[in-house]
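Here is a typical sample entry:
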Amino acid sequence: MTSKKGILFQKAHAQDFALEIVSTDVHGDVTVRCLFCLYQGRHVVKVNVVGRKRKQRNDIKYFTKPFSLFKYRSHHEGQHAASWTEYQGMSVNQKKQYFNGRIKATNTLHHHFDLDKDTYEFFICTEIIDVIIGDLFFCNDEQLENIDADDGEQNPADAVRKKLIEK
């Protein structure tokens, strides 16, 4: 279908190309987003490799009028090649279930921090751990004995509480 402003969105393309209608304005113009971008994010690409001059985008691809199959295919092949190939080989029922139960890429740490692997290992000096965990959270018997009740407190237990609160 076409209008004066361009090719209109066909609802059959939503399932065929893993798209979702996001909004429709007063004039009936539709905005559609890529479900691969929404749930999996875009593929990682390196700058200055294979003629790439610009940094990778992390946002979700939105399509507006004029809609064309070429735009969908071009985006999917460039940004979601492996997922797109797998999706094309699926049956209609499998395509309907493909995104069920998946977590949106925007709800993961990888999206916000550009993490390239799932685990990171940190080496922290034992003295730091002793100070942070030992002195901050725990008070040994020696420290309790050294607390004087002469700080204006009548009860030694109140003095202990006061010192612990200060820590």
